[in-house]
Amino acid sequence: MKKIFKYSMLFAAALTLSLGFASCSDDNDEPEAPSSVNPDLNGTDQIVAEACANWREARQDWEWSEAFLFGPATDFGLDPHTDTWPFDRVQFDKYMKKYNPATDEDDAALIDDAIANGQNLTGFHAVEYLIFRDGEARKIKDMTANEVYFAQSAAQDLYLSSLKLVTAWGGELSEAEQKIIDNAEFESKNYGEDFMTAGEPGSKYSSITLATREIIAGANEIIGEVRDSKIGAPATGADVNYIESPFAHNSIVDFYDNIMSCKHALYGGWNVVDQPTATSLLGVCLKVNNADMKAAAQNAQTKLDAALNKISIMKKPFVQFYTDQSAKDAMAALDELESALDALDGEIEKFSGNATLEAEFKKVNEAFVKNTVIPTYRALADNDLKLLNSLKKITWKK
């Protein structure tokens, strides 16, 4: 009980601060009129549709981060907390039958705690379930105040998690955002600094090259997960319920964005998609005076584009066509991409300790943090806040 009370107080403080920060531009907005189709809620179908659009934007930012889940996303459990699926509908239904968080403070504290300290009732897929059905925005007439409260609480928790990721990697926070972090009593080392100072005393990485190779390892981690779990589990019949983002029909978009996260990491920027930058991992490997490394980098580029193409032409929606041959074709392309990156990693390993190449890789590591990781998490936090604020437009009588 002490744990629940403590978190609820922190959560309430964080919620107040974030909403106070976000509401400055809304001071002159007219309050929403009660919905004519749901007398229990003040809101409209348009507001729910807006929340769904904001969910998709924030969702893309999260999926774009999955090539670098090493670090705080893993160490603080923020990855499973943000993105575990399937959503536990059985437990959720029990909560909705037993508790009234929209009107009862004690019930609200219990729900807030379940969201803050669990992983099957929180994150993107909790919000998804509450605002989407069959790929479309839910109708306000079908929603309850308790459901809306749950969605708002889960969205607030998403925002807090994204702020943790920003600050843990060394990104800047506003004064209001820093207060939210302080109230949540979150403390972290600077993971970005640790990565950029690889090879120096105090860094987790004993050499610059080891940190650079972590970029490939992070990419291969999500490539394997998309192939074996996200697509593979339902496609092979291993677990037909293991389908990500089924209510929003966003599964294939998720897969594509996961592999785009690899492209961003390897190309040197969260919005770089055409050619690798000069200070990116692939950019350096393509210009190095070594035929084998250059060939491996070119092959990785080719396989990366091939995998993205195969995912883009998968039959949609995945929740209905997960056994289609196009899913298996995408899995095969991802397998080839993983092998290509393994080969590139092997070529890089041969040059461990090479002073000339390590000088280039130091630039790669710095650019990776500054141009890919921090901007991705910054965009995620901003869009999580947009999602939260859109949901807060729906109100009810307390």
Walk me through the structure.
- The chain has 398 residues and is mostly helical.
- Helices cover 65% and strands 1% of the residues.
- The chain has helices at 2-22, 45-63, 72-75, 78-83, 89-98, 105-117, 124-131, 145-168, 175-183, 191-196, 208-235, 251-267, 281-287, 291-312, 318-321, 325-349, 355-391; strands at residues 132-133, 136-137.
- A two-stranded antiparallel ribbon has the order 1-2.
- α1 crosses α6 (105-117) and α1 (2-22) packs antiparallel against α9.
- The longest helix has 37 residues, at 355-391.
- It is globular, with a radius of gyration of 22 Å.
What distance separates the N and C termini? 24 Å
**Fraction of residues in H or I helices:** 55-70%
Total helices: the number is 17
Give the overall pLDDT as a whole number: 91
Strand order of the largest sheet: 1-2
Question: Quick one: overall form?
Answer: globular
Query: What is the chain-wise order of helices and strands?
Result: HHHHHHHEEHHHHHHHHHH
The biggest beta sheet reads: 2 strands, antiparallel
Overall SS class: mainly alpha
Per DSSP, what share of the residues sits in E-state strands of 2 or more residues? Answer: under 5%
Highlighted features:
398 residues; mainly alpha; two-stranded antiparallel sheet; 17 helices; 65% helix
Topology:
Layout lengths: L1 H21 L22 H19 L8 H4 L2 H6 L5 H10 L6 H13 L6 H8 E2 L2 E2 L7 H24 L6 H9 L7 H6 L11 H28 L15 H17 L13 H7 L3 H22 L5 H4 L3 H25 L5 H37 L7
